[in-house]
Hints:
By secondary structure, the protein is mostly helical. The protein has helices at residues 3-17, 21-34, 39-51, 55-68, 73-89, 119-140, 192-212, 218-229, 234-245, 252-255, 264-285, 287-298, 303-311, 315-328; strands spanning 106-110, 148-153, 174-176, 180-183.
Amino acid sequence: MNHLAKKHFSQASICYKQRNYSEAVDYYLVGLSIEPECVEAYADLAKSYEMLACWDQALQAIEQALRLRPSDPTSLRRKNRITEENSFYNIPYDAISSPLEDSRYFDLNVSPDISTLSDDLVQKISGILERTCNFVGYRLNFFPLDPVKVYIEEKHLAKSSYNDLDTFPDWAPAYYDGTIRIRCCNYSMSGLGVLQTLIRHEWTHLLVDLITDGKCPTWIDEGLAMSIARQMFSFEMEYLQTANRNGAILRLQQLNKPFSQIDDRQRRLAYYQAHAIFLDLIEQFGFSSICVLLGLIGSGEKPEDAIQQTFGKPTVQIFSDWQRKIDMG
């Protein structure tokens, strides 16, 4: 391989690991202009575009990798994943209307450090927030009494523009801490579907916190937020099945602590596992049972007692029943 191209690919990989996806794309493109038949670089370029929600470019890059090496397993796997994500996240531009007046449910604030967000995009974000308030609110039958502060912040701020104590994890693109904060990751119109999913997730955390007075077990809080935000992708279920075969499934105690405290290598598994367990509960008992559960916790029932009353079995059995299904699947 050309030495200069290799240097650019190496720098692209570093940028990707640092979550600087736009810079990673630039380095991959320069490297590929020098070494235009590097399959691995095209596959990694596709992954960088995927993280930016640039679906068309991601698919073009992965198609080029497959033209060069049609049976490459990594490229085939990534193509399937990106295609599935694209079909879910690709929201038509006209599907999101801009709100005509200020919302009674949220107060959107854009960090003064961000100069790249167009007024049109900010209006679309407001539209997504309004849709989310109604979508999640009607599902959980709960709406906040006072407008919630929502902040769009610069990606690399060392401290929050609005908080002296910044609790925003480095790995999180959005975060709920009493307010909702969204880290600006070069969102474009093609990324509105991803942004909508993030906002649904955090808005669910907000409502669960209000309904249960902050007493909801973590695995329920995260599982519900994932379930309301989006479907579970087939590649995520395959990931869970592989983890189960390898004896890597997380224990209940691990899923009951804040996911921000879970090791980086296990955090993705934690989200997938909570999502899958919760979808299984919804399939068995219906979504109305989830509202009953949250109401019981909010009225002062101990979470484990509320789980037993709602589902007729303790959390340990819920976990073991789900894992048995994974074993069979």
